[in-house]
Recover the amino acids of this structure.
């Protein structure tokens, strides 16, 4: 569902001065990124995260599309990242001490094309975690499936465009299109 920015202002906290043009955010850095207004912690409910991401460079070692806003690893519950092998990664935790639900290193089989817009969809259906990619928001390719009924547990507000852990920040090189991004809980919009 697209949003009208004149009716729905950006529902994020802007940290620093990333470039924002019609809801498309770029020039992320360790000082310039976004955070959600509230912690996304859906408990046992079904949920779906969709983020439109356009990469412009392959990161090293990785860049975080959706991650920690605090300097504590595993606090975000779900972590979506662009890895140095040019694939999308997914990690999920219920313990906040390890990626115990979707383990670290769970990557897509497809590689990304620079300057191509991708819709990344991560969902939890009560018994499985799935990650899909699309270049048109119509045809979705399932890239990751992890069977688990264990829900995530987030203890800190999530960031968009960066991950902050162990005194390091891992910003993306590219853009996030906020009007094309959203989070649903039980098929109801929770954030957009």
């Amino acid at each position: 569902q697209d949003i009208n920015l004149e009716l729905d202002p950006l529902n994020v906290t802007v940290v620093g001065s990333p470039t924002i043009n019609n809801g498309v955010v770029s020039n992320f850095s360790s000082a310039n990124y976004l955070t959600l207004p509230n912690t996304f912690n859906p408990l046992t409910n079904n949920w779906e995260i969709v983020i439109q991401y356009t990469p412009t460079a392959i990161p090293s070692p990785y860049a975080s599309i959706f991650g920690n806003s605090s300097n504590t690893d595993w606090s975000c519950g779900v972590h979506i990242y662009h890895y140095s092998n040019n694939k999308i990664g997914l990690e999920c935790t219920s313990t906040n001490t390890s990626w115990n639900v979707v383990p670290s290193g769970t990557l897509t089989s497809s590689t990304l094309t620079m300057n191509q817009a991708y819709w990344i969809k991560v969902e939890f259906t009560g018994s499985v975690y799935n990650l899909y990619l699309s270049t048109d928001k119509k045809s979705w390719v399932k890239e990751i499936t992890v069977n688990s009924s264990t829900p995530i547990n987030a203890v800190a507000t999530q960031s968009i465009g960066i991950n902050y852990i162990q005194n390091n920040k891992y910003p993306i090189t590219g853009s996030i299109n906020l009007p094309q991004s959203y989070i649903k809980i039980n098929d109801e919009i929770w954030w957009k």
